[in-house]
Amino acid sequence: MGKVYLVGAGPGAPDLLTLRGARLLAEADIVFFDALVHPGTLALAAKAKKVAVGKRCGQVSTDQRYINGHLVDAAQAHAVVVRLKGGDPMLFGRAQEEIAELETAGVEYEVVPGITAALAASAQLGVSLTRRGVARSVTFATPRVGDGEDESANHWVGSAANADTTVLYMAAGHAATHARELIAAGKSAGTPVICIESATLPEERRVATTLGGLLRGIPGNGGPALLCIGEVYREWLADAQRMRPDAGQRQTTVEQCSLN
Amino acid sequence: MGKVYLVGAGPGAPDLLTLRGARLLAEADIVFFDALVHPGTLALAAKAKKVAVGKRCGQVSTDQRYINGHLVDAAQAHAVVVRLKGGDPMLFGRAQEEIAELETAGVEYEVVPGITAALAASAQLGVSLTRRGVARSVTFATPRVGDGEDESANHWVGSAANADTTVLYMAAGHAATHARELIAAGKSAGTPVICIESATLPEERRVATTLGGLLRGIPGNGGPALLCIGEVYREWLADAQRMRPDAGQRQTTVEQCSLN
């Protein structure tokens, strides 16, 4: 019986994988990977059979039960099975369902954390999620729009509206709706927002605006995007508005907005 | 003029550093490192001069201005300067002050993200921070107890009490106070809590309880500890209460508590 490793591939750039993740990929006999995993990361699994399971941003395109079952089956046939997931396995993935299936089947497993997109975005922007005197709490959330699938769908607003800094994952497509919800919950329309798409990849793009500006929606190129919201971004947005792009501000667009 | 890299060393275990961080350490001429950085991580900086700046868990033991100034000075003398910080640089560090000083001095810099402790703890516990139908928002916060240093000190409660999952950093020492604040803000006393100390290191310890149980404080061994709070931990706590330690539950203590 083999062992299954749930490995976080990190935000995009292949060299943001952990050393442990890289070692396990090199040892892997078979790798099940998400759609967003970089080809350069997959290439580290030199001797492994590679199976695409086509999940993107937490959406299911391969049936989750199919993935769960395949992990258990693979552990019967191979010593080292890697389930390679974008970002970190324990944040906005469906790792818990995979873990439950492995536990039920008595398959040994280990989780290897990965750099989650919000941390990578912060590094790219040069803006701390927390900052002395400005922010000592940060909320990560995935809002869901009107699908009624689960009752916790609207809980995110209370936490996000009260956090000093908020990062919304998989939310850019309904940015205007989420901005409206946050403003209704008491967040100022002048709160700075930076939308960052494809963070750490060459095609990385940033759009700087405010919650009020976000009400008009946000342009996107189809890459995975984060909405970074909070006072910690005020200086960055003001600099972008003054058209003083520094080395860190590649491909930055400033949407029409007021910081007041 | 050299370049300064602010590198996240990750949660503890040296192989949870990123590939990029490892490469930069190997290239570094000089490394300024925090007290909590593992000797095995430092050893990767084979040719670098190593300077301890003695910060632990965000507390300042070396004056922050001293560190800021030294980074600028080092960039005049060395090509590759690494500032190695525990966890991730952009979460609960003082990176923004270092970045501001580098920008003012016109020194080029880059931030390399690291695995933050909450993600490492989740991997160790095998419990997702988010989970379909249970949790779609997570708050990370550092409460501060009555020092009056900054006015945002109490904002954390609103966000933490409303989040589905909450992870408190640098909070175990005043666990009872924080539990009282969260209960006063509406969080149920039966909410499961896992305190994890020295996550990913051989001396890792877990204490499982509830917010109500936390009112009696929590025993600690002096290592960096997280308080992980939320319904996602209910099953883990129930298993621990039934004394069915699995492979993942090394050094686990269950405090007297009720899950209701």
Looking at this protein, list some descriptive labels.
five-stranded parallel sheet; 11 strands; elongated; six-stranded mixed sheet; alpha/beta; Methyltransferase, Cobalt-precorrin-4 Transmethylase, Domain 2; 22% strand; 260 residues; 2 domains; homodimer; Cobalt-precorrin-4 Transmethylase, domain 1
Folded structure, characterized:
The structure is a homodimer of 260-residue chains. By secondary structure, the first copy, chain A, is an alpha/beta fold. Chain A has two domains: 3-112, Cobalt-precorrin-4 Transmethylase, domain 1; 117-254, Tetrapyrrole methylase, C-terminal domain (Methyltransferase, Cobalt-precorrin-4 Transmethylase, Domain 2), CATH 3.30.950. The first copy, chain A, is built from nine helices and eleven strands. In chain A, helix 3 packs across helix 4 (95-104). The longest helix of chain A has 14 residues, at 64-77. At the A-B interface, helix 1, helix 4, strand 5, helix 5 and strand 6 of A face helix 1, helix 4, strand 5, helix 5 and strand 6 of B.
Write the layout of secondary structure elements.
The structure is a homodimer of 260-residue chains.
Chain A: E1 3-8, H1 19-27, E2 30-33, H2 39-42, E3 49-52, H3 64-77, E4 80-85, H4 95-104, E5 108-112, H5 117-125, E6 137-141, H6 156-162, E7 165-169, H7 175-184, E8 192-197, E9 205-210, H8 211-214, E10 225-230, H9 234-241, E11 252-254
Parallel strand pairs in A: 1-4, 1-5, 2-3, 2-4, 6-7, 9-11
Antiparallel strand pairs in A: 7-10, 8-9, 8-10
Helix pairs in contact in A: 3-4
